[in-house]
Amino acid sequence: MLQAALLRAATLVSLIGSNPHRAFSVLARPVVWRHHAEAASVAASNQFSLSAVRTFKDVDVLSKRCKDCYFKKMDDRWYTLCKTHGRHKQRQRMPDDRHFWIVTHRTRSPRKNF
């Protein structure tokens, strides 16, 4: 066992030479490779994390990005849909209803009236 450790140390010294930067890369390289291998195996085992989701982009002004894009109105909102490129999907941005509330009384005061 001691001979094996001395043999490994001798091979490291021969690989290191006089350049300390190379020495660090020689020692750190297997750890990095092992890390990438573990990450790949974890990603391969969990297929749900790799599935891409094409959602709508909320925009103020809808536009057709290609010849196959078309407009459709659903649920009081305009949509741009595309059969060839899923990334072209857009949706009309709806204003927040709270901006249109009419406040009929004062809701904040420094003194409590009770």
From TrEMBL:
Does the entry feature the keyword Ribosomal protein, yes or no? yes
**Localization, UniProt:** Mitochondrion
> What GO biological process terms are annotated to this protein in UniProt?
translation
**Which UniProt keywords are present, listed alphabetically?**
Mitochondrion, Ribonucleoprotein, Ribosomal protein, Transit peptide
UniProt GO cellular component terms? mitochondrial large ribosomal subunit
- Please give the Gene Ontology molecular function terms for this protein: structural constituent of ribosome
Recorded superkingdom: Eukaryota
Q: Which PANTHER family does the UniProt record give?
A: 39S RIBOSOMAL PROTEIN L36, MITOCHONDRIAL (PTHR46909), LARGE RIBOSOMAL SUBUNIT PROTEIN BL36M (PTHR46909:SF1)
Q: Which family does it belong to?
A: Belongs to the bacterial ribosomal protein bL36 family.
Query: What is the protein name for this chain?
Result: Large ribosomal subunit protein bL36m
